[in-house]
Design goal:
Blueprint lengths: L2 H4 L6 H16 L5 H13 L3 H8 L31 E4 L5 E3 L4 E2 L2 E5 L4 E5 L4 E2 L3 E7 L4 E5 L5 E7 L5 E4 L11 E7 L4 E5 L4 H7 L2
Parallel strand pairs: 1-4, 2-5, 3-6, 4-7, 5-8, 7-11, 8-12, 9-11, 10-12
Helix pairs in contact: 2-3
Length: about 210
């Protein structure tokens, strides 16, 4: 098959994950910035063909884009092969409890609007669909509790400047192959925490 014909072929979820892992390693080595990582990961999971993916790693040494193969790539840390989900999880509650815990499928992007409500996302036993999980949380005048796997890292850019409290007790720099989270949104007047282990003083707020 001619190269230009191959570029028109559709890529698989496993091949998108391959490129995402290369990008995370490049960020950990300092070859690209976290902003560039974020932009390229967005483009990676939006890619439809090889032509879309190849420019994302073309300026990195030792990479030649995804390899066309019918054999799925090994699942990265914390993931289950064949369980990736291209569709984001979108939840609009606004006042009620939003809880995800135990064994659940966490897509690459999660969008939650739960103003005045309590939101708890426990990823310690979750099956992650991608090496980087993006969470956009709006929990103004409510509470937010995000529990991450022990080795996970998280970049937290959540605005709680108006009478809100935000505490992030996790490292922000990616550490492949451990999962990485990018957390954005707003928490005006809210109490929010991003952490690894459950703290007893929070149990009364989040129900255990």
């Amino acid at each position: 098959m001619a190269p230009h014909d191959r570029n028109r072929l559709r890529v698989s979820d496993a091949e998108r994950d391959q490129v995402a892992e290369v990008l995370r390693e490049a960020a950990a080595e300092g070859r690209i910035t976290l902003d560039e990582l974020d932009e390229r990961l967005d483009a990676t999971y939006a890619a439809k063909t090889y032509a879309d993916l190849e420019p994302l790693t073309g300026d990195l040494p030792g990479t030649g884009g995804p390899t066309h193969s019918t054999t799925p790539a090994p699942a990265p840390y914390g993931q289950t092969a064949g369980t990736s989900s291209p569709s984001p999880m979108v939840i609009n509650s606004k006042g009620g409890p939003v809880i995800r815990k135990g064994d659940w499928q966490a897509p690459a992007r999660i969008e939650i609007d739960n103003r005045f409500g309590a939101t708890r996302l426990d990823f310690r036993e979750a099956r992650l669909a991608a090496p980087v999980t993006k969470i956009h949380l709006v929990c103004d005048w409510g509470t937010g509790d995000l529990l991450l796997p022990e080795e996970a890292t998280a970049e937290v850019d959540l605005d709680s400047s108006w009478f809100g409290t935000l505490r992030a007790d996790v490292n922000s720099l990616p550490n492949p192959p451990a999962p990485h989270f990018v957390i954005t949104g707003t928490g005006q007047g809210a109490t929010i925490r991003v952490r690894h282990k459950r703290a007893s003083k929070w149990s009364s707020i989040f129900g255990g």
